[in-house]
Amino acid sequence: MAPNVTGSPTSLFLAGAEVISPQKTVQESAVQRPTVPKVLGEYRWEIVWRNVIAFVYLHSVTLYCGYQIFTGKVNLYTLLFMFMVGNFAGLGITAGAHRLWAHKSYKAKWPLRVFLALLQTVAFQNHIYEWVRDHRVHHKFTDTNADPHNSQRGFFFSHIGWLMLRKHKDVFVKGKTVDMTDLEEDWVVVWQRRLFLLLMPICCFAIPTYIPMYFWGESFGVAWNMCVARYTLSLNNTWLVNSAAH
Questions:
Q1: Superkingdom, according to UniProt (predicted)?
Q2: 5: Cβ contacts below 8 Å, ≥ 6 apart
């Protein structure tokens, strides 16, 4: 159930009050209508403008990239290559961060774990440790304030809005109750977390942009735009699980 953001129940206002006429009650209620602040309990919205600007840029480039594709400005090899990269990056999320590390659905030896960790880095949806922690909190405290993408707060919030606002304090409090020792003991996860800020720009953006330029002469502008579009579509593909599937 969504939190009560409109104030106290009517009965609280009447307790211990003088008996007044219905007409006066209607007149006062018409004048003193409660406002609805952007507050959920003790939580107040705090927009993360850096993320908002980044998402506006990503989606704007993706729309422009669609224009470039339909006007024949994108090499077919570039289109196929980015499609392949997007699918491999998706494996890093689905087979890696989700099924292997978050839910422990199967066991994998270190070569496969390293491979999946690299693919998850290409996907750039935070490092494995943070992705798994948020996902486990989501399952343990589904549709509460501790759920990072609480669907009770609406479609937009559960899709992308949760990344545009500071997390509710319950996410941090309840997140500390989630057992993460299995990841803390996995050297692949530990090292990916340590090297993430170095590896992510290389794996997610630099290499996928460079390959079309080097091997079949794609322009930098087109290669970069296609790389951004591939990343943006991959993000939305994951977000749809949180929004449309709930």
A1: Eukaryota
A2: 36, 37, 39, 40
- CB contact set of 86 (below 8 Å; sequence gap of 6+): 230, 233, 234
> CB count, 10 Å around CB of 166?
12
Phi-psi region of 4 (alpha: psi -120 to 50; beta: other; left: phi over 0): beta
Tell me the DSSP string of the chain: -----S-S-HHHHHTTPPP--HHHHHHHHHHSPPP--SEETTEE--B-HHHHHHHHHHHHHHHHHHHHHHTT-S-HHHHHHHHHHHHHHHHIIIIIIIIIIIS--S---HHHHHHHHHHHHHHTSS-HHHHHHHHHHHHHTTTSTTSTT-GGG-HHHHHTGGGTBPPPHHHHHHHTTS--HHHHT-HHHHHHHHHHHHHHIIIIIIHHHHHHHHHH---HHHHHHHHHHHHHHHHHHHHHHHHTT-
Q: What is the pLDDT of residue 42?
A: 64
Closest CA to 193 of 134, 132, 129: 129
pLDDT below 70 — which residues of the chain? Answer: 1-43, 246
Nearest to 172 by CA among 131, 134, 124: 134
pLDDT of residue 44: 80
Q: What is the pLDDT of residue 245?
A: 80
Distance CA 102, CA 235 (A): 18
